[in-house]
Design a protein that fits this description.
- The protein is an alpha/beta fold.
- It has a 6-stranded mixed β-sheet with strand order 6-7-8-3-9-10, with helices on both faces. A 4-stranded antiparallel β-sheet has the order 2-1-4-5, with helices on one face.
- The radius of gyration is 21 Å and the shape is globular.
- It starts with a helix and ends with a helix.
- Bound molecules: adenosine-5'-triphosphate and magnesium ion.
- The site of adenosine-5'-triphosphate has 12 residues, from strand 2 and helix 3.
């Protein structure tokens, strides 16, 4: 295990500097991730694939971004570029001012941009929940007392401190994903990327995880990048980014993005159920505006229609 002194020598970060990075990065509006003309290809010899193709994006600190796109469109590759698990072949990815192509920055970028993956079982490393959550800060070389404090704090913040002595593999899928989120939180990241982390969960588990990430975003101003196939989840984001064949093809607020029903469907995606209903009513001439994505507004619209 390495201590902060070694971390400082090896990676050029001090505890104060590190906390400063987080404190600074959480000031809403500051640039969290800048992607400039990034390209990434998998070199499959006979069949090379350009998975990310000339993507330019800015993600601001405190934003909640939803990323949509059909299977194989490049979402996971883009996510891996964002936390320096992969480095672009061309273009640049800059996280909190740190260019991912510089080897010295990779460790700091990964610490600041935590990833939660699809299968909660693949992320379990401890025999108890608290051990599991402590694993990340342990590897950062944090002092044992501080590790315990951070792990308990992370569990408390997402409301599962009561599970701390439980065996993670016996928890529900939603609880396991919350443990994985707590594990990332204990490393004090500025941003969390969830790569289809709700796709293996039942509706209750999905809701729990969505509420957790909404809480972290709204109450703790944490930057969230949520890759999902569920349109209802994307509706909670500040901005929706649609990827197709490695390119950003649409971006805007959820209402802006989903109101173009034909375009979304052409990209192999769905729109929220109420948007589809209002869209069909518009085609039939019953309403003039189908720019609605939430149930309450849809009910109001339908009520006014009935009179
Ligand atoms: N390790 C790999 N080796 C070779 N090609 C890969 C590899 N990983 C992904 N690809 C290819 O790169 C493209 C983008 O894949 P990626 O996993 O980023 O898409 P995705 O949008 O996350 O898909 P999904 O919705 O299925 O998770 C696809 O054509 C895929 O086949
Ligand atoms: Mg993927």
């Amino acid at each position: 295990m390495i201590g902060w002194k070694e971390v400082n020598e090896r990676y050029g970060v001090t505890i104060g500097g590190f906390i400063g990075i987080i404190a600074d990065s959480n000031k809403a509006g500051k640039k969290m991730i800048e992607i400039l003309n990034a390209e990434y290809s998998y070199d499959n010899h006979d069949y090379p694939v350009k998975a990310v193709d000339d993507v330019t994006l800015d993600i601001k600190s405190g934003e909640f971004i939803a990323v949509l796109g059909r299977n194989g469109s490049g979402k996971s590759t883009l996510a891996r570029l964002m936390n320096a698990l992969m480095i672009p072949d061309n273009g640049r990815v800059v996280v909190l001012g740190m260019d991912s192509s510089e080897a010295d920055n990779v460790w700091d970028i990964r610490k600041n941009v935590g990833m939660i993956f699809q299968n909660p079982d693949n992320q379990i490393v401890g025999t108890t929940v608290i051990e599991d959550v402590a694993f990340g800060p342990e590897n950062l070389g944090v002092e044992p007392l501080e590790i315990r404090r951070r792990a308990e704090d992370a569990l408390k913040r997402i409301g599962i401190l009561d599970l701390k002595e439980r065996a993670p593999h016996l928890l529900s899928g939603g609880q396991k994903q919350k443990v994985a989120i707590a594990g990332v939180l204990a490393m004090k990241p500025a941003c969390i990327i969830l790569d289809e982390s709700t796709s293996m969960l039942d509706p209750i588990g999905r809701r729990e995880v969505l509420e957790t990430i909404k809480y972290l975003n709204k109450s703790e101003q944490m930057t969230i990048v949520h890759i999902t196939h569920h349109m209802d989840e994307a509706c909670h984001a500040d901005r929706v980014i649609v990827i197709d064949s490695g390119k950003v093809v649409i971006q805007g607020t959820p209402v802006e993005v989903f109101s173009d029903v034909e375009k979304i469907e052409k990209l192999g995606l769905d729109v929220p159920q109420v948007t589809r209903l209002l869209h069909n009513l518009k085609i039939d001439g019953f309403v003039d505006d189908s720019r609605i994505i939430d149930i309450d507004s849809a009910v109001e619209k339908l009520r006014s229609l009935i009179g």
